[in-house]
Protein 1
Amino acid sequence: MTGVHWRHARAGDGPLLEAFACAKPNVRQGQRRVPPEPWATEVQSYLRAKALGETAARRAEHDQRLILVFDDDSLVAVVAHQDAGYEEAPTRILIAGAVALARRGGTLSDGRSAFHAALVCLLEDVQQASISGPVLALGWVHPGNRRCLRAMARLGWAAVPTDDGLLEVRGRLL
Ligand SMILES: CC(C)(COP(=O)(O)OP(=O)(O)OC[C@H]1O[C@@H](n2cnc3c(N)ncnc32)[C@H](O)[C@@H]1OP(=O)(O)O)[C@@H](O)C(=O)NCCC(=O)NCCS
């Protein structure tokens, strides 16, 4: 048993990411099948189909990184982040982050929640990138995504509405 650990995604991780599930199955509304959390479906599609290629393409220019968090052999969380390019205040943009559906709200083998474990792995990654001084985090969350907003509010991160209907979330990462 190795407990919770992480590594950067690599070229052969396509099948692992294609099997990653963070979205609840569709529910039936009359004739239609509607996802109960559309944002989770969007994040899942990105992580399954795009994250690996986009991270490789944006590695050099934007320092994009894709973190895979494991609990023993299970992939329990995935986080993609990149440099915002602000010289005055080093800032990491949170491109996408998700906890595996089966582990959401749950506890991992070392007693931490999956969300907390993903955050610690993100911090370790930022520290390894040798970014010195305070580091800020910046992301955009759908206002209906109460779970994500609650988790970020617990970190003391502020959420401000934007013109495109999302909430911009900002806070201190490091
Ligand atoms: C956002 C996400 C990473 C948070 O992970 P998580 O494991 O749910 O996080 P937590 O266990 O810390 O829970 C966060 C909050 O939701 C609540 N919660 C967790 N699981 C729950 C459940 N099954 N039912 C009701 N509430 C739940 C927790 O109680 C907590 O609320 P609190 O702060 O009031 O106690 C995860 O829900 C996820 O992957 N969602 C799908 C993808 C997504 O939305 N990504 C973010 C895009 S911006």
Note: The CA atoms of residues 61 and 131 lie 16 Å apart.
Protein 2
Amino acid sequence: MKPTVPLLAVTMMLAGASLAAAQSADTAMDYDDGIRAYTADDVPTFNIAEDGTVDWPTFSGFRRYHAECHVCHGPDGEGSTYAPALKNSVMRMDYYDFLEVVASGRARTGASGNSVMPAFGTNQNVMCYIEDIWTYLRARGAGELDRGRPAQRADKPEAYGEMEAQCMG
Ligand code: HEC
């Protein structure tokens, strides 16, 4: 007869869930290593200036996402009938879990059919740019980047170019 107790329990669960979400969704830039921006937890993040100029890695992530992931996950990280909206996934997923899924893939079989996320671990066109793709998707998920091609971007940092050349070997 007293609904207050279960209601309180639900409220506390929701509070706990949103606290966890707030932690994993920390996108604030803390520092830049000359290649890209990072949060205080050393997780790559975007750096978008007030005039909308997007940092090079985030712009690169936009391009790589649309070259490698768009076909299943839909334009702009919005999702499709086949695969989830990654702009939302990255706001609740741990960065290292994200890397793991992309590198190793994931398959699910069910009554409604098979759904397969391919493993990209040996694909340089994905793995050399995976931080960029993460950063781009987080900018989308945080609501800091509109759909479509970013209108303005910063130049490619020299250190980024060196890292890229080394990775692509
Ligand atoms: C051939 C289609 C296909 C391509 C290409 C593809 N994915 Fe996926 N991906 C899927 C499917 C299907 C799932 C859902 C798998 C499942 O049901 O567990 C998925 C799941 C994921 C997940 C887990 C999402 C979550 O909410 O748990 C991540 C992260 C992911 N993909 C990242 C990527 C990235 C990054 C790329 C591009 C480099 C990419 N995927 C390209 C089909 C694809």
Note: The first strand starts at residue 31 and ends at 32.
